[in-house]
Amino acid sequence: MRWAILAVLMASACTPAEDPEIESAKRLVARNLRDPGSAQFRDVTKCAGKPGMVTGEVNAKNGFGAYGGFELFFVHSGSAWMLSAYPFDAANEKDVSYFKKLVDVCYEGGNPDFGAFYNLSGG
Description:
Elements: H1 2-14, H2 20-31, E1 40-46, E2 53-59, E3 71-76, E4 79-82, H3 93-108, H4 114-121
Antiparallel strand pairs: 1-2, 2-3, 3-4
Organism: Sphingobium agri
Protein name: Lipoprotein
């Protein structure tokens, strides 16, 4: 029994704590999914020099109980957006292009045009 407890303690000591901003972004994205408990994340990154901006990919179960595939998400100042959700239309080339530009800001620097974004989203 002592060995089992020791093994659990050692495993938890070896696991680095996630950044609170990243964990908050993941919770925010998961909350908007049909099955939040099924969320799988990858390539989640805080945008350097841009507090409150996080981007990555999420995969979750759809209404049929199957995983739909990884898709981009973007979190800014407590709001989360995914390409497959309002106000974006994944079939609309303009929306896809604009969404990717927002995400690229995280990696390439510069400042996103949130004015245009909020006009698009009706916010």
